[in-house]
Amino acid sequence: MKKIIVFALAGILLTSAFNQCIAQDNPTNLVHITKLKMIRLDDGTFQERDSLIAIYKKNVIDKNEHILSHREYAHFFTDNSSDYLIIEEFKDFDSWQKSVDRNEELENAAWPDEAERKAFMDSMNRYFENWHGDMLMSTNPGLSKN
After folding, report:
1. C-alpha 75: how far from its chain's center?
2. Model confidence pLDDT, tens digit, residues 105-131
3. Residues 64 and 58 sit within 8 Å (Cβ to Cβ)
4. Which of 3, 7, 9, 56 is the most exposed place for a label (fewest CB within 10 A)?
5. Phi, psi torsion values for 127, nearest 5 degrees
């Protein structure tokens, strides 16, 4: 019986702590950071990679009204320059969630044929490892410099 009470109390405390972390009145000024690892391909070039990314950005990212800003950074000037960051800014948590669905809608509109869409995505994604890391951060606008 004591174990049940201890687990119940632990569950209540953990749930309360979790709710405190996420219940921030829909925080604003969210930044989503995606970390990728680039792959050097024998049959590809950085120019081709950048061209494919630019096509995707023009057809999807630039048309997504939920994304306030979008930046991409490739690691520069070391022996292992495989890190690649995508940093996007959103008004709030709801906008971030809506942007995911909107990206899918825009992908389908840009490449209506499923086979062509898959071929394009495969061409672009082959420049990156099949791994990524994500962080969703809330900015402190009072401490930021524009």
Report:
1. 17
2. 999 999 999 999 999 999 999 999 998
3. no
4. 3
5. -85, 0
